[in-house]
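step=encode ok
step=design start
structure_in=
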């Protein structure tokens, strides 16, 4: 009965959606419908309203349609959305409504058919459903049956093995009716079978699957066997040593429709977005003429990024309450040890080394000290009999210390990373908007909006959000202050034309300095910014009268001095404070202490080899993604370039990602930078372009990447250079677009950017999710996210 109702629902929904699509086309052409067409459209409206109520009832559980429930919800919503788009088009006609209606029609049709083919497999074979209670399965190996509860319990590292002989019928799937203990996340299932092609020996592991908590569809495991199955063996093992309870098993149960709402929304959203960029005149208007739409789009994109950051952080807590995290009396060197040391007026950590550390002859040699069972504080700096921390002090002074001082508790790393990341994400949007307004105001609105999507997705901050430990606090804090420093530098008119704003110059200088105090690696950007500020000094020059009464431009006037104070003083003051802090600890104002850290290698004796830097450059910039038809679908093989030496790569803790050129395809614009330079008419402007793009977007990122030869590869470091490099690539693309008059070439650039958005969302987005929610041999903590990722891509399963 449900199958018949579903077919009717499918016909009505798609028929109504098609009628609305026809009506949108008529309205676009200002054609009046015939009496017959008007009648059909009226019936379609009535059907859409009816189907919408059916969908809502199915969604809230008032009506149950069995395996087709998700399909009823989707088809009802599709008809209602199509009707809504039709009504909106009547109020304000736009081709976007027609495109959206087509996308809804196609997405709904694909989702309930092609993307859920397993549901219809029972229609094409002589399959009989077979059900087995827990009591009937209790004779299996390692099975612990509970008569009172009438279920089977499987605990810890044990497995339950169920053997079914003399079946002699075709089997299309296996359904495991189970539930989980509160701390259990899923179960691994392995199936051995004998079919007509092999009747005496099991085909080992012919079927595999993973059941996931709260993902009921995962309890169905489809099989592709030949003919009648004579015997089947099923092994069920809890993941990560959990506890599961099995109520029963069944064969040949129809697999339900499982709608991937993310996939549906992506198909609809990206179709409409790309059509708008390529075809709509509103997207072709320059940003300067579309200020309000640009601002609205930026707000939506930024808000979405911030919401996603909050969701990821909360999911990473694994059920731990924020109230618990905010009342911790112990922490790490950033959340506890540094605040306590600063409260006591000390630059070294209060807890000193043990006697065996003080007396050991080579404490920095990791294997040597481990062989002698020396008890050290991991990743702390040891120097001259004291422990120190090489992590930036700005997050400590601005957040951890005040919180500890006021509450007596240690502020959680997760909260710090989230706060700094969100502020930085907002700052990055401000940077991009000011970058467009200041330097490329004639850029089409569509390209600008697409550029912001790519920039936010591939900025590198997601690798910190995905693993919010104290290591990532420094990264996210540096990102936070660096974005706002660059924004104020743009808005102060230091780069580009316009009157220079002294308050914004001072804020830019201040935030650059704080960024360095958060993440010392960023000092190169700070030096670069100081150079740009000095380079802008002549624009603040005043005039003085010479002895003959003529006016002469003079740099060091009152206005020039005020500008220099605003530009240099904040950097100088905080820089001197950092230098004093370094000198007080290590006797050297330029020593941050990382070479004395007790960690993976003896940095005091590490020797530089160019190939070590090449490893970093290749993996951070040019390492291509690897696509596969199974989880994780998008990955990257780390490359050592056949180096015969030690290079540390932190893949176990942080995974690795594709190179930036393959995360954000606009990066390939650097290969045509020469053509862009040739189009700049004046030598002075060529020099400025080379300086403003070449130094902060190319040279400094390359130097930063090359410098990790000592500490090794960690994916979180990408935030130090990713968004800066992408901005430089945008400068090339937007400039070339502004100078190209050929329609074909402009269309190619727009289509390239559209493809880049899709590529970045798939490659960078998927790898960011996989990094945040690890699921593999080393980490089995997030099978639910892995399952959703699998459902998004592997629709054939």
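sequence_out=
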């Amino acid at each position: 009965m449900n199958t018949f109702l579903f077919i009717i629902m499918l016909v009505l929904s798609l028929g109504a959606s098609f009628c609305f699509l026809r009506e949108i086309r008529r309205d676009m052409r200002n054609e009046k419908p015939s009496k017959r067409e008007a009648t059909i459209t009226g019936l379609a409206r009535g059907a859409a309203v009816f189907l919408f109520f059916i969908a809502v009832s199915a969604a809230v559980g008032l009506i149950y349609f069995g395996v087709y429930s998700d399909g009823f919800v989707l088809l009802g919503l599709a008809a209602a959305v199509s009707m809504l788009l039709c009504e909106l088009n009547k109020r304000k006609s736009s081709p976007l409504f027609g495109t959206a209606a087509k996308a809804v029609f196609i997405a709904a049709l694909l989702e309930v058919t092609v993307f859920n083919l397993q549901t219809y497999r029972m229609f094409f074979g002589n399959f009989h459903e077979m059900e087995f209670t827990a009591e009937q399965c209790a004779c299996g190996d390692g099975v612990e049956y509970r008569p009172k509860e009438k279920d089977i319990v499987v605990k810890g590292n044990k497995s339950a093995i169920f053997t079914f002989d003399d079946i002699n019928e075709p089997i299309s799937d296996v359904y495991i009716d189970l539930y989980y203990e509160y701390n259990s996340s899923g179960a691994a299932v392995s199936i051995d079978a004998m079919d007509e092609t092999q009747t005496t020996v099991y085909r080992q592991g012919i079927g595999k699957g993973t059941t996931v908590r709260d993902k009921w569809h995962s309890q169905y495991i489809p099989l592709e066997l030949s003919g009648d199955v004579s015997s089947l063996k099923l092994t069920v093992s809890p993941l990560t040593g959990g506890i599961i309870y099995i109520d029963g098993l069944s064969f040949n149960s129809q697999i339900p429709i499982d709608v991937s709402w993310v996939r549906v929304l992506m198909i609809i959203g990206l179709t409409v977005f790309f059509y708008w960029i390529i075809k709509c005149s509103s997207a072709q208007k320059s940003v300067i003429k579309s200020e309000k739409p640009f601002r609205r789009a930026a707000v939506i994109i930024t808000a979405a990024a911030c919401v996603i950051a909050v969701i990821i952080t909360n999911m990473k807590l694994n059920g731990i309450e924020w109230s618990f995290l905010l009342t911790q009396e112990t922490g790490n060197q950033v959340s506890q040890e540094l605040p306590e040391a600063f409260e006591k007026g000390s630059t070294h950590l209060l807890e000193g080394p043990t006697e065996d550390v003080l007396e050991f002859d080579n404490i920095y040699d990791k294997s040597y000290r481990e062989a002698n069972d020396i008890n050290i504080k991991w990743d702390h700096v040891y120097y001259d009999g004291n422990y120190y921390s090489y992590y930036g002090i700005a997050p400590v002074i601005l957040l951890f210390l005040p919180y500890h001082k006021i509450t007596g508790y240690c502020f959680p790393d997760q909260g710090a990373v989230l706060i700094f990341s969100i502020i930085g994400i907002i700052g990055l949007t401000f940077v991009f908007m000011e970058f467009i307004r200041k330097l490329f105001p004639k850029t089409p609105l569509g390209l600008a909006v697409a550029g912001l999507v790519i920039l936010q997705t591939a900025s590198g901050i997601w690798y910190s959000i995905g693993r919010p430990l104290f290591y990532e606090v420094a990264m996210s804090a540096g990102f936070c202050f660096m974005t706002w420093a660059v924004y104020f530098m743009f808005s102060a008119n230091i780069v580009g034309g316009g009157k220079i704003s002294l308050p914004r110059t001072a804020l830019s200088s201040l935030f650059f300095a704080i960024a360095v105090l958060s993440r010392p690696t960023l000092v190169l950007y700070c030096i670069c910014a100081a150079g740009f500020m000095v380079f802008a000094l002549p624009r603040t020059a005043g005039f003085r009268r010479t002895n003959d009464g003529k006016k002469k431009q003079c740099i060091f006037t009152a206005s020039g001095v005020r500008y220099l104070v605003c530009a240099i003083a904040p950097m100088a003051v905080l820089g001197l404070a950092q230098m004093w802090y370094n000198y007080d600890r290590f006797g050297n104002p330029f020593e941050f202490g990382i070479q004395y850290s007790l960690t993976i290698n003896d940095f005091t004796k590490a020797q530089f080899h160019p190939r070590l830097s090449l490893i970093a450059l290749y993996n951070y910039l040019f390492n291509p993604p690897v696509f596969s038809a199974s989880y994780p679908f998008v990955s990257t093989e780390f490359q050592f370039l056949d180096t015969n030496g030690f290079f540390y790569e932190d893949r176990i803790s942080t995974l690795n990602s594709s190179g930036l050129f393959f995360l954000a395809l606009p990066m390939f614009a650097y290969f045509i930078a020469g053509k862009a330079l040739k189009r700049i008419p004046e030598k002075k402007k060529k020099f400025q372009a080379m300086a403003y793009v070449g130094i902060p977007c190319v040279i400094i990122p390359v130097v930063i990447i090359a410098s990790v030869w000592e500490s090794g590869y960690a994916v979180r470091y990408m935030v130090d250079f990713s968004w800066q490099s992408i901005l430089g690539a945008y400068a090339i693309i937007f400039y070339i677009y502004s100078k190209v008059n050929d329609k074909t070439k402009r269309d190619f650039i727009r289509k390239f950017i559209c493809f880049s958005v899709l590529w970045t969302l798939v490659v960078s987005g998927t790898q960011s999710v996989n990094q945040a929610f690890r699921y593999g041999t080393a980490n089995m903590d997030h099978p639910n996210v892995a399952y959703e990722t699998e459902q998004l891509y592997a629709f054939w399963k």
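step=design ok
step=annotate ok -> The CA atoms of residues 773 and 782 lie 6 Å apart.
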